Amino acid sequence: MTRRLSLATLLFALLACTPEKAEQAALPAEESADRIDLIIDGQSVVTMDANDTIIEDGAIAVDGGIILAVGTAAEIHSEFMAEEILSGEHRIVMPGLVNGHSHAAMTLLRGIADDLALMDWLNNYMFPAEVQFVDAEFVRIGTELACWEMIRGGTTTFVDMYYYPDTIAQVVDSCGMRALISATVIDQRSPDAESAVDSVQKGSAYIERWQGRNSRITPIFGPHANYTLNADQLRETRAAAMKFGAPISIHVSESPFEVQYAKDTYGTTSIEMLDSIGFFDGPTIAAHVVWPTETEIPILAERQVGVIHNPTSNMKIASGIAPVTEMLQAGVRVGLGTDGAASNNDLDMWEEMRLAAFLQKVEQMNPEVLPAKTVLRMATSGGATAIGLGSETGSLEVGKRADVIQVAFDDVHHVPTYDVVSHLVYVSDEQDVVSVVVDGKILMREREMLTIDTARVATEATAIAARIKTALEERNRE
Question: In this structure, are 168 and 309 located in the same domain?
């Protein structure tokens, strides 16, 4: 049967709609059928709800950015008529992907320093390049390029940590995605601040400007790591975040270097150190978490820390293999992320799903661990929960925001299809995504980008890349 709005959800939907739409939503279906915004059809609808419901020949009804009903196509089309319909022939409908950790503007630094260890890569290449090249214009163009790539690949929500967060927020506002956008805090000169104190002050002003301004944008703090900030600075950043009720995103236990640094500096490991100073007292998104100890994993679960696994980046920089299976078994909230394009080198969440599954299987020499269904959940509803948006997005359920994608299953690698979830994780790639909807608005229709001027972005990105290449060549000649 079609899933319809409960009374509580109906009231939520009414409050989110205009008066005209609120009146329409209160009417019987047959009277309001010609007034809803959108119907999205699918050969299969993979809801990612708690029961892992899959509806064959299904559809969802969307109005005012909210999912009004989920059911079979016959049921939805008999109850609703929409201003626009996304055809479901050879299409799988599913929640948009959630990229829990990125540095979006670093798309413009893709490939300038590869095959290096993390600290060499950071200290000798990335940090100097950022001081030399990164300004607000760089961040605008790089973020637009990243949003284009993410939308193209079916990502609807991302968590970002970079500089000039106001500029990032403006891009997200324009392109229509959903994002948690960090004000980076680091104790060194950076493109937009002089020190940790300056970072926190500017970050606080940014959060004041954007908090509550756009329902798709959540301004947060992004302290870089425990080796680029001391304990007092980390405490001060958490205190500032608590003042605004803002989450924090931070790199945690990413590399053996970081673990050893914590032991040498604080006499304990990274996660225990952060817990000891009350850092986990507020919502925390911990990126990487490759090296948690057996005693630290329960801390992550108890403190409800959202862990973001970045398999491609972790492999490329040889940071290690995160104990994802053990964390999930302990009740830790685990999602997936791409990291930045300078250390990945793309923003393809389909690749992250496959590698997440394969790494755990080969590391444990057990093909049964981290099955496709679990990995798909990490990229959707589990990822949304890990970043604090589980009540809003990540699954196709009545009352949630309509963040939806259609994946084409008509190419040769989907013939035949026996198990839709298996194909989504082990076969599909970003080229299969055909339509993307965020908050009920279509951002890409049948592979046509609607909210980003891709020709302009490509031209601007190419021009910046030419300047960077020239500067690097001049430096290498010196």
Answer: yes
Residue 27 has, within 13 A of its CA and on its CB side, a CA count of 16
Residue that finishes a domain, picked among 335, 364, 386: 386
Alpha-carbon gap, residue 475 to 29, rounded angstroms: 67
350 touches 429 (CB < 8 A): yes
Tokens, residue 59? 């559809």
C-alpha 109/C-alpha 28 separation (Å) is 54
E strands present in 211-357: 217-223, 248-252, 284-288, 306-309, 333-336
Residues 77 and 154 in one domain: no
Instruction: Say if residue 12 is in the same domain as residue 125.
Output: no
pLDDT tens-digit profile of 2-52? 555 443 344 444 444 444 444 444 444 455 455 899 999 999 999 999 999
Helix (H, G, I), strand (E, B) or coil at 379: helix
Check whether residue 163 and residue 245 sit in a common domain. yes
| Pairwise CA distance, residues 19 & 239, whole Å | 40
State the DSSP H helix or E strand holding residue 156, giving kind and residue range, or none if neither.
strand 155-162
Element (H, E) at 220: strand 217-223
Give me the number of domains the chain comprises: 2
pTM (predicted TM-score): 0.92
Classify residue 454: in a domain, yes or no: no
Half-sphere CA count of 459, side-chain side, radius 13 A: 5
User: Is-contact 273 262, C-beta < 8 A?
Assistant: yes
**110-142 pLDDT, tens per residue?**
988 878 877 888 888 888 888 888 999 999 999
Domain that includes residue 189, residue range: 97-386
Domain identity same for 206 and 285: yes
Residue 474 within any structural domain of the chain: no
**Within-domain flag for 478:** no
CB 149 within 8 A of CB 91: no
Measure Cα distances from 467 to 142, 265, 462, 473 in Å.
14, 40, 9, 10
